[in-house]
């Protein structure tokens, strides 16, 4: 599932939180990418130190350390959060339905897609609404009902699409 959610809070004032399913292979890929980003700069600096390369490799190592390492840390932390959210939904989540209530095209100049209005409901699940910005998909249409899992206590949810 790719896209970002903009959410409307419920009467308790808490904002729902969306998560995407990340399986073992996806997690391995994301953690490996994060580790590569974190280690690329220090590895280049080490190589520059052992080879005696002056400016080019040393400058590249410094830039990779300063720019890539923080991105790797953020990617690692985001992956940890998504996996924790998924474990919680798998443990305490209740089945719900996300009904598509609205479809609107959007284009911000760099990306284009569709904003999907969703209404979540089900037994043991408070009804709430969210909007989801994502790439266009031919199966998306108003009235489409998608399976979802919701943790009513924390307003955490996952839509399976």
Defining key terms:
161 residues, alpha+beta
Task: Characterise this structure.
There is one protein chain. The protein is of the alpha+beta class and 161 residues long. 40% of the residues lie in helices and 32% in strands. Strands 1-5-4-3-6-7-2 form a seven-stranded mixed sheet. Strand 6 (145-151) and strand 7 form a beta hairpin.
What value does the Rg take, in angstroms? 21 Å
Low-confidence stretches: 1-11
Number of helices: 2
Question: Hey, roughly how much beta strand do the residues contain?
Answer: 25-35%
Biggest sheet record: 7 strands, mixed
Query: Tell me, what's the shape?
Result: elongated
Structural class: alpha+beta
Approximate helicity band: 40-55%
Order of helices and strands: EEHHEEEEE
Mean pLDDT: 86
Structure in a nutshell:
The protein is of the alpha+beta class.
Write the layout of secondary structure elements.
Elements: E1 4-7, E2 17-18, H1 24-51, H2 56-92, E3 94-107, E4 112-122, E5 125-134, E6 145-151, E7 156-159
Parallel strand pairs: 2-7
Antiparallel strand pairs: 1-5, 3-4, 3-6, 4-5, 6-7
């Amino acid at each position: 599932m790719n896209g970002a959610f903009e959410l409307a809070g419920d009467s308790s004032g808490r904002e729902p939180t969306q998560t995407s399913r990340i399986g073992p292979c996806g997690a391995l890929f994301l953690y490996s990418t994060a580790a590569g980003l974190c280690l690329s700069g220090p590895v280049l600096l080490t190589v520059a130190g052992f080879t005696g390369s002056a400016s080019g490799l040393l400058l590249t190592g410094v830039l990779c350390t300063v720019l890539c390492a923080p991105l790797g840390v953020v990617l690692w932390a985001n992956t940890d959060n998504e996996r924790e959210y998924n474990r919680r939904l798998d443990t305490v989540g209740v089945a719900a339905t996300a009904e598509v209530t609205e479809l609107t095209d959007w284009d911000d100049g760099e990306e284009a897609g569709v904003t999907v209005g969703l209404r979540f409901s089900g037994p043991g699940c408070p009804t709430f609404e969210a909007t989801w910005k994502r790439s266009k998909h031919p199966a998306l249409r108003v009235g489409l009902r998608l399976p979802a899992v919701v943790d009513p206590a924390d307003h955490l949810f996952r839509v399976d699409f």
